[in-house]
Amino acid sequence: MPDSFSRSLRQLWTLDKFAYSFRVFLAFSGAIALSWSQDQIALAIPLFLGIIASALSETDDNWEGRVRALLVTLICFLVASSSVELLFPWPWLFAPGLALSAFTFIMLGAVEQRYATIASATLILSVYSMINIEQHGGTTDGNFWQQPLLLVAGAAWYGAISVIWCALFSRQPVKQSMAQLYRELGEYLIIKATLFEPLRGVDVESRRVALARQNGRVVTALNQAKEMIFRRLEGQRGSRKLNRYLRLYFIAQDIHERVSASHYPYSALSEAFFHHDVLFRCQRLLDQQGRACKRLAKALLLRQPFDHGQSEQALEDLRASIVYLRAQRNPAWTPLLRSLQALGRNLATLEDQLSSANNPDAVADQKDASLLNRSPRSFKDAWERIRLNLTPGSPTFRHALRLSTALLVGYGVLHLVHPTQGYWILLTTLFVCRPNFGATRRFLRQRIVGTVLGLVVGWALISLFPDPLLQSLIAVVAGVTFFANREKHYIVATAAITTLVLSSFNQVGDGFDLILPRLIDTLIGAFISGLAVFFILPDWQGRRLHKVAATALTNSTLYLREIIHQYEAGKQDDLAYRLARRNAHNADAALSTVLANMLQEPGHYRKKDADEGFRFLVVSHTLLGYLSALGAHRGTLTPSGADIEIHAAARRIADGFDSIAASLAARQPIPELNDEQSALMAIFEQEPAAAQDDADDERRVIQTQLLHISRQLVPMSEAAARLVARPVEVADDDKAAEAT
């Protein structure tokens, strides 16, 4: 039993939301204990609201950074709450102040994500201040500072718990993010394995779309892991454990490049080797390596070694299958076998990386282990980021204007109809109104469903358990449930926070009187948010699809140029190369995200564009796969004068993609590249002049990869041309938006 209990605790500790939820539990419990010890249960409400706002403002950082962020947050909270307290009796001053502050705080998010988080939490606390004042009859009871200080005290209490937790367990979030990264990599490998399934009539394009979407999740996990490591490495470069996670991160980057690689069109391989087992061997190896990545993720959390013996055996089986095919000496298979051998070497290196991830301390430190700092380096840099977004073409500006207008309309509605508990309208608007229509639509539906569910559950609980102490415990449990589910299960989170409101406010009044107003106010706030996102500078994803697609192609071209430079100067995993690779994958993920958001938009705005966008995504991701394969083979050849023509031709490919991207971004006719593609293919199809040896075979593999990349020029230009040739009404909307 003790061993079983210890194992359960260890597994609970590995959950990414456990620590967050436990901190919230401590904060809520402390607030409840204080209010009961002082025999002033009314104290719990402002303390709870402050705790919630502070927990929503929490940013990942080391403990010193968290202290700085907490001080900024508390100052913002105090200023916001005091301003609400001061202007609350004067609606004609309060309204413009509300709109201006909302616009300003959203624009601050253009500086960096941590500022966006703090700004959003400050707006939420402002509305909490309004709700708190309304609970006291709309007056400050002659004590101006009492409610602001209680709100800030609740925020400071949670902040203190957060800082102490960060100091005691600073590396736990890094470990969890690294485990999440390897889980996502494992899923990517498993999906990639399905492309090698030699079956006729399979919808390969849908599998490629699924692969591109999963690639977006891998990129997000890579970025989150990098930021977590970077924030903890500042001033702690000598930390052995942090350097261990840095090595794991670089291993994950290399695995991602190798698993993204495409060495030959899968349809050609399937057709040629349909009656042989080599593709089944490839599929099994990739699948086993994906499962090994997932086992590695679990082993990282539990501090256990992991076994990848099954993938090692699958690799040996693949090698044996390739040896058998080579022994057949079929001339028609020669180019295919070269690609299969290159694929085998790539997967063998991937297997070595998995083995080294099992003991990263044994891996030599990378020569260039620097990470790009994307934070603003000065006030001037921060202001420049805001200035560049002060244009109607910026999604941040559009969202700031849209949200501030929606809050202003909501404030006008609550004064016009004087609903009971009317400030829930503003809170609903704040939570539901998102930067794009798709996200707003999703949160709007989930908010309404969650609120109805929460009201039913809350009504049942306060009816069944009228004891104030039990209702306080219910509020604590509901608050913890909210934070444990707010990112992945928003309906459950909304139901939980609604239950918390009913059980808490029932301590100082009649919670049953809050049920109907909360429902009506939620519907009004959701309705205002829906109208705002539809009519106020609507950010239809189709309007900027061509620009996002052009950005993806531009970054892939920069990646290609950096790879060519590596072949000329020799392999070096420096920051420039890693940044080019990461930017290419980030842009590919951004394109996938835009298309996913388009599917949530009204059919008039998405039907044709979404179809053409997904076709472009497939071509773009295919190109990225060939580039990744080319990058994975860096260092296999010593640069020589014989490669000058090949490198020059590779640059011509990059020039071709650049011309497509420039025309696509400007919505101009896409250049015809059929003749250029034919000329480049003729160069890469030439056999190397050197004797047939291992170096020549490696060189031929590189030429084959460049041949595949050059073959993407025409498909890419055709996909881009279809994006440019959009429906007239959508194109007109795009021009109007750009002229705004």
Description of the structure:
This protein is an all-alpha fold and 740 residues long. Helices cover 76% and strands 0% of the residues. It has helices at 2-14, 18-37, 44-56, 63-87, 91-108, 113-135, 146-168, 172-194, 204-233, 240-260, 266-272, 278-302, 309-327, 334-357, 379-388, 395-417, 424-432, 437-464, 468-485, 490-505, 515-535, 545-569, 575-598, 603-632, 644-665, 674-684, 694-710, 713-724, 728-739. The longest helix is centred in the N-terminal third of the chain and has 30 residues, at 204-233. The termini are far apart.
Top keywords for this entry?
0% strand, 76% helix, 29 helices, Methane Monooxygenase Hydroxylase, Chain G, domain 1, 4 domains
Structural class: mainly alpha
Distance between the termini: 68 Å
Radius of gyration, whole Å: 29 Å
Sum up the overall morphology in one term: globular
Please tell me the overall pLDDT. 85
Q: Write down the secondary-structure element order.
A: HHHHHHHHHHHHHHHHHHHHHHHHHHHHH
Which fold does the CATH topology of the largest domain refer to? Answer: Methane Monooxygenase Hydroxylase, Chain G, domain 1
Q: Could you say what the CATH architecture of the largest domain is?
A: Up-down Bundle
Strand content: under 5%
Individual helix count: 29
* Tally of domains: 4
Pick out the low-confidence regions. Answer: 728-740
Structure summary, number of beta strands: 0
Largest sheet: none
Range of helix content: over 70%
Q: For this structure, what is the CATH class of the largest domain?
A: Mainly Alpha
Family: Belongs to the YccS/YhfK family.
Pfam family, one: FUSC_2
InterPro entries: Integral_membrane_YccS (IPR010019), Integral_membrane_YCCS_YHJK (IPR010020), Memb_transporter_dom (IPR049453), YccS_N (IPR032692)
Main location: membrane
